[in-house]
Amino acid sequence: MKIPNSPILPALFGRRTQKVRQTLGSRLFDILNVLVLWGLVLFTLGPFLYILFGSITEADYYRVHGVALDPAHWSLASYEVLLSTASRLVPAFNVTLLTTVLGTGLGLMVTASLAFAVSRTELPGHNLLVWMLFFTMIFNGGMVPFYLVVDGLGLTNTIWAMVIPFLSDAWFVFILVKFFESLPQELFDAARIDGCSEVELFFRIVLPLSKPVLATIGLFFAVYFWNQWFWPMVFVQDSQLHPLQVVLRAILSTMMPVVNPNAAVQQARQMADMPPVEVMRMAAIVVTIIPIAIVYPFLQRYFVKGVLIGAVKE
Amino acid sequence: MTTHAAAGPGQSATSTWRARLAKLGRKMWFYRYLYLLALPGVLYFLVFSYLPMWGVVIAFKDFRLFRGFDGSPWVGFEHFTFFFSSPNFPRLLRNTILISGFNLALVFPAPIILALLLNEIGDGWFKRFVQTVSYLPHFISWIVVGGLLTYTFSLSMGVVNIQLQRLGLEPWQILGNKSAFYGLVVGTGIWKEIGWETIIYLAAIAGINPELYEAAKVDGANRFQRALQITLPGISAVIVIMLILQISAILNSNFLQILILQGSDASLYEVGDVIDTWVYRAGFLKSQLSLATAVGLFKGVVGLVLVYFANKAANRLTGQGLWSRPA
Q: Which of A39, A254, B82, B136 has CA atoms 20 to 30 A from the CA of A109?
């Protein structure tokens, strides 16, 4: 007997591509599979949702009952404090924004222009360049010599310590090289006949055609600079220059208050009721994640492609 | 080397040599602006990758910041022998290899299983939704993961223990617990990267010839048989390559992950301290710069040897090296 196709399943879980008659076992597997995948979604999003709801829970409600799922007990007080002038996150946010913009912009320039030179196999020294890059993927001098170089250049305790030492990566270069090599070479020849120099070729033809892969590498750079905390922690002692992640770490792991203590007193007077420190911490985590969480879904198509270009085998 | 018949003996070698050099010079001059484009990148790698490689010579010196590079005396392999004979060495090696082993056995297969499951639900919004959600943790820092862990598992603030308490059950101590440490490493490792790692396996699955599935259907193979006998073998080459890469990186525990999971809890060092975290503490917290460099160099050299053999193994198994060509 034919098992009727339930209209609910495809509506709930997405349409199957082939509408073929299915056995009972296959049906059961589909249901189980979808449940497992919903489980993964919950497992992934659960901790995020918990702190999201926690961060918007009213102070009084939180002290008694904990996190509120009921909108009647929500409040944005924690975010008001976080974004106020007394907040330690605001200067850190600015530092991170600056390093991310500088790092991504400069990183793309340095990496793409090197990649273009490497992609021209006829360039004398091509093999040397490739091996120079490749070797950095399999060996490095270790943490201490890297630190000594950055320190020796006088970069420590400046904003540049979080930017310049991270402006390129051999893997990124090779992804770009592969992409540049895949561009139609006839286009280059035509441009050369029109009197285009190699450099003009790069800026006028190659770069405009490479927007998808540049978006991918740009995202990788931006995520790196947004999330970096280890080297800033080592390189930068001046707390005014600490980026978001380093300040977040201090807020989460030590008893460092989210707002300046002196300013906090004023703040408390103004606001009558300061949100509990746990709510503030949860809000701080949310603020740190949100920019990336908003951006990455739109670039999904690009970075999936980017990963595959750079994969060891295609 | 080809010599021109017209050139006399003795002169021929130098003249062709000169001619070649001149030709190379002209060619390089022709491409001068390309070199200019490459220059910032080349400088970057020379300064931030190669200068530190040369800097490893301080592993053979008794380097102090105030004495400077030249003022520090040579000590040969003293730092190496000190490290190898210290009780730290077997402990760090054991922890590093154990954590890599757990990652290989449990974290490595997770995205393969997820890719197989995703492949069975057909294209549609649900598949895209699951994928998009599963990528999210890849984009957040270990600092944030540490914060999320606190609000999930801590005894006083974690949602899990708050609920257990409400139900009148025993609390479940995961954070700061030696016997739960490897579980935490594996769990957070899967949580963070399972989605990201499926990208490559799903692409490999998409590359399998659809006629194979049709033929299997005609032969009466059901979905499970098709998954096990067509999909899995179809992506086995990719799995083997990924596995070899992973094995060759056995001394590279995920440094930032371990650093966050350890926190400032020194009681976890017994099970959780790995070579990288030890190097970090020796170098940056105790200022044992030469010792830390020596241990880092030891790790780097072993890693290089492992990559060499991994490449050979990949060559033998798949007919191609890990890198068919470097670029």
A: B136
